Amino acid sequence: MRTWLITGASSGLGRALAQAVLDNGEQVVLAVRRPESVQDLVDAHPETAHAVALDVTDPGQVVDAVTRAEARFGAIDVLVNNAGYGYRAAIEEGDDAGVRKLFETNLFGPVNLIKAALPGMRARRSGTIVNLSSIAASRPLAGSGYYASSKAALEGITASLAEDVAPLGIRAILIEPGGFRTEFGGRSIEQSPTRIDDYMETSGSRRPVEGVNPSLNTGGDPAKAAQTIITLVDMDNPPRFIGMGSDAHKTITASLQARLDAMNEHRDLVVSSDADA
């Protein structure tokens, strides 16, 4: 029986994944800011569900969560870094404190969890690390530069991590979800308090509107996304990078094709800086 540690398991994709894994009879450590928010899952699965308080920006809580998970179930077989949030602002509008908090949550929190979980995985020569990114990393839109860059940095970490740990029997998987019917478009997006009129038609038009959450009415099904993640973890040789959702497939392939087209169109310029033989 595998043990999963899932961050951000109180809502959205994280909760759907936790529910699906528990329904499969496996063990889940629900790592959330407020353990009471997942008490219903613990009550429904008292032998296999365990809630721990975790603010991923607190390194001490990260170590404590992993320690408690290993003490309860003996090992962490699958770490899912799902916790995160969005941030809307033009680059010039970004406030230092807000941007640093964003990176602490979306990048350094997952990195600290990886570092805390890896000693146990290395000792067993097995384990899977799943990092949730976003199609924003492949196609950053106006107003999403800081969020996209936090996820792009996580993608770089994951790609290098996969190379680090592959000889040790450990896998690292990066998933780029598209839009799903969760709270991401509402309470899971913060925005800079600075507003510059010149950006109102670009980044300004994409700022969240209070009380409106378009994500609830569009996008993919979180329950189906949970099954996709489980399928990937079950694979003997899963892809190190994959999208999730039809919009992700469209966005990622278009982005890759545009880059390839630009490289081919300007090949002579690209190679013109080579040193003479």
Please describe the topology of this protein:
Layout lengths: L2 E5 L4 H12 L3 E6 L6 H6 L4 E5 L5 H15 L4 E4 L4 E3 L7 H29 L2 E6 L12 H21 L4 E8 L11 E3 L30 H13 L6 E4 L1 H20 L1 H5 L6
Parallel strand pairs: 1-2, 1-4, 2-3, 4-6, 5-8, 6-7, 7-9
Helix pairs in contact: 1-6, 3-4, 4-5
Please, what is the CATH homologous superfamily? NAD(P)-binding Rossmann-like Domain
Order of helices and strands: EHEHEHEEHEHEEHEHH
The protein's oligomeric status is single chain
Distance separating the two termini: 59 Å
- Please, how many domains? 1
Radius of gyration: 20 Å
Q: Any idea of the CATH topology?
A: Rossmann fold
- Give me the side-by-side strand order of the main sheet: 3-2-1-4-6-7-9
Figure out the total of helices.
8
Helical residue percent band: 40-55%
Any overview of this molecule?
This protein is an alpha/beta fold. It has one domain (3-246): NAD(P)-binding Rossmann-like Domain (Rossmann fold, 3-Layer(aba) Sandwich), CATH 3.40.50. It has helices at 12-23, 39-44, 59-73, 96-124, 145-165, 222-234, 246-265, 267-271; strands at residues 3-7, 27-32, 49-53, 78-81, 86-88, 127-132, 170-177, 189-191, 241-244. Helix 1 packs across helix 6 (222-234) and helix 4 (96-124) runs parallel beside helix 5 (145-165). The longest helix has 29 residues, at 96-124. The protein is globular, with a radius of gyration of 20 Å. The mean pLDDT is 94.
